[in-house]
Amino acid sequence: MTSIKEQAAISRLLSFLQEWDNAGKVARSHILDKFIETNQGKTAPELEQEFSQGASLFLVRLTTSLRITYMTDSCLEKLLRSIGIFLSAVSSNRYLIEFLEVGGVLTLLEILGLEKIKEEAKKESVKLLQVIANSGRTYKELICESYGVRSIAEFLAKSKSEETQEEVQVLLDSLVHGNPKYQNQVYKGLIALLPCESPKAQQLSLQTL
């Protein structure tokens, strides 16, 4: 039997999830603000404690919301930052796999190619791809298999923010190391950037090469 304390914690979790499910755009934005503020930098066990061992129930809601709304830019930056809290948490491999199983990488790459999405949201997408790439060779290969190098290189050439372009360089640098199967693909992607119109993109490509 569960203790009174455990029952209360489960009740709080269900109440929170119900609040999210019933919330409109503005209310969800406030929920995300509070989640980011209170959970930044937490480990996976700490997140589980926060959510009464049901953190994945909130993560699946975040990823579902991302897939449904990313083309409209609705709370997109906050959604990506919230997902980042899960994926960046120490001992978070389970969260990472859950995110990838629902097509997370493809969604992040698509965000980079959509013109109407704000630069800040695209930068958050790049940061999530960095987290995924830094999780090991298998994950780097997954990004490359999803035609990621082309999407990332094209975004580097088109981006108007030098700060975002530098984040993209960090991502490409991660993809080129410890990824022998696709190293040449990344190398060719960097070479293809040299004639592009963005001087910053050219400079970063040369540095990485």
Relevant terms:
209 residues; mainly alpha; 2 domains; 76% helix; elongated
What is this structure's SSE topology?
Layout: H1 4-22, H2 25-39, H3 44-50, H4 55-69, H5 76-88, H6 93-101, H7 104-113, H8 119-133, H9 137-145, H10 148-158, H11 162-176, H12 183-193, H13 199-208
Put the structure in a nutshell.
InterPro entries: ARM-like, ARM-type_fold, DUF5578. 76% of the residues lie in helices and 0% in strands.
Number of strands: 0
Order of helices and strands: HHHHHHHHHHHHH
Task: Give the helix/strand class.
Answer: mainly alpha
User: What is the overall silhouette?
Assistant: elongated
Main beta-sheet strand count, sense and barrel state: none
**Radius of gyration, rounded?**
19 Å
Proportion of β residues? under 5%
Number of helices: 13
Give the N-terminus to C-terminus distance in angstroms: 60 Å
Helicity level: over 70%
Low-confidence stretches: none
Overall number of domains: 2
The chain-level mean pLDDT equals 92
Describe the protein's architecture and organization.
By secondary structure, the protein is mostly helical. It has two domains: 1-102; 129-208, no CATH class. 76% of the residues lie in helices and 0% in strands. The radius of gyration is 19 Å and the shape is elongated. The chain starts with a helix and ends with a helix. The mean pLDDT is 92. It comes from Pan troglodytes. Pfam families: DUF5578. This is C1orf228 isoform 8. InterPro entries: ARM-like (IPR011989), ARM-type_fold (IPR016024), DUF5578 (IPR041090).
